[in-house]
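Worked example 2:
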Amino acid sequence: MKNNNKKKKESTFQKAMFKLFSCPVFLFFTIAIGNFLIFGQVYKYIGWQVMILLGLVLYWILSSDKKFKLKMILSKD
């Protein structure tokens, strides 16, 4: 009999993406750049310090939520 309980192997791409997105520095810069590109016109007169602060707050909120994990998103139901 074959063992059908074997876990499906994660691809190299999935492993690389998980490592990349679990890096706080990458997330910080992604959020900061995203804020600049999307809301650049809105925050034009506020300054880059506020945009970075908003990125940090968003990262803090997402990282404090225990249910929000990239592994759960990538895992198959």
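The CA atoms of residues 33 and 52 lie 9 Å apart. The first helix runs from residue 12 to 21.
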